[in-house]
Specification:
Length: 187
């Protein structure tokens, strides 16, 4: 997943955004409603200081936390036998999240959501996490009063079968891959 603050993008894997839930605005402590928000409405809210880019990313992470999760038991790990979890109300729609290990754990996401399954430290400064990028966008906005680009505050999901140089490409399988990060982004 490309992470370019210069172009005003903040990427984090997101899903289940349109599902009904308690207000993400209430959960993140803002009045802004993230459900069905457009890029324009997000940028207007950021420009009017109603919400920060950091708050936008937190709101999406809150929704991911509410709706994304395990729906099968894997007693022997991957690969191995699986059985459905009765009454589950989540969908394992997302695999890697663009968060550093400590942040991912702080949010309560399991290890299968790691950006890398083979680099436990995952501390490369060339791979900042979505919350770090959001905070940087907020610092730049505070200093200049201008959005950093046309996608400032945008949160994006990229399917895990598309090669992105700075995220795990799983090809849709929740498994460990040695050196799983492709060297370049897909065209």
């Amino acid at each position: 997943m490309r992470m370019e603050i210069v172009r005003g993008r903040v990427f984090v894997l997101v899903a289940a955004v349109l599902c009904a839930s308690p207000s993400s605005a209430q959960q993140s402590g803002t009045k802004f409603e993230i459900i069905e928000a457009t890029i324009g409405s997000i940028q207007t809210a950021i420009s009017s200081k109603e919400i920060t880019t950091f708050d936008v990313v937190k709101a999406y992470l809150t929704r991911i936390k509410a709706y994304n999760g395990r729906w099968v038991n894997e007693p022997q790990g991957v690969p191995g036998p699986v059985s459905p979890i009765p009454g589950v109300r989540s969908l394992n729609a997302l695999m890697p999240l663009n968060l550093r290990p400590a942040t991912r754990k702080e949010w309560g996401f399991d290890d299968c959501k790691a950006r890398s399954m083979t680099d436990a430290a995952d501390n490369s400064t060339t791979l900042p996490d979505a919350l770090e990028l959001a905070a940087e966008q907020d610092r730049q906005f505070q200093a200049t009063g201008k959005l950093v680009g046309p996608l400032h505050g945008t949160v994006t999901s990229i399917k895990d079968i598309i090669d992105t140089h700075d995220m795990r490409t799983t090809r849709g399988a929740d498994a460990d891959y040695a050196n799983e990060g492709p060297p370049v982004d897909a065209t």
